[in-house]
Amino acid sequence: MTSARFLVVLDADSTLIRNEVIELLAEEAGRRDEVQAATEAAMRGEVDFATSLRSRVAALTGVPTASFERVRSRIEPTPGVRELTAAVHERGGVVGVVSGGFHEILDAIAPELGVDRWRANRLEVAEDALTGRVDGAIVDGAAKAASLREWAADLGIAPRATIAIGDGANDLPMMAAAGLGLAFNAKPAVRAAASLVVGRVDLSQAIPLLP
Ligand SMILES: [Mg+2]
């Protein structure tokens, strides 16, 4: 892939897909309400993302890996996502996703939706169940921005030829690093900081913005 013209990087939860995967996993542990409240606070930018993620993942302790399939079956792609990824490819672009969510779910979803490369957190597993710990470095806001820069450099794409699309406070660093930062279905703090705001929950709305 030496001739990519531009790069579009999307957030996963509530952007690429309608769900927050950690809430679906928490439901498997009978702890959806508390995890949902903590996720919403993190997405509004009220708490440190990595600290919040560690405590939310701790609430998933004991969830069997067998439940991943049920969680995957509940994922709803965001309207317009396939149209957007097809349009990016038609115009010679590359689609990336960088997520504070989890490879365990995203790996099954991303390729089907036309995503070319993706990065997320990994859940530590022992004896076919979650240990309640994140495996490896946490993908937080800074890691999202670093991924966008790294992928652009790798593809020979200038930073100005990148678009970042997200809804949460942890997307703000990558939106600032991109040529265009698009707030999608976004929290107020994210709307306020974005170059552009898309209010309708339809990713095809971003197609006219592609170079
Ligand atoms: Mg999100």
Can you walk me through this structure?
There is one protein chain. The chain is 38% helix and 21% strand. With 211 residues, it is an alpha/beta fold. The chain has a seven-stranded mixed β-sheet, with helices on both faces. β2, α6 and β3 form a beta-alpha-beta unit. α2 packs antiparallel against α3 and α4 crosses α6. The radius of gyration is 16 Å and the shape is globular. Bound molecules: magnesium ion. The site of magnesium ion has 7 residues, from loops.
> What fraction, in percent, of the residue positions are helical?
25-40%
- Average of the residue pLDDT scores: 96
Q: Give the overall shape, derived from the CA principal axes.
A: globular
Helical stretch count?
A: 9
Give the biggest sheet.
7 strands, mixed
Count of distinct strands: 7
Radius of gyration: 16 Å
**Which structural category do the helix and sheet elements fall into?**
alpha/beta
**What compounds sit in this structure?**
magnesium ion
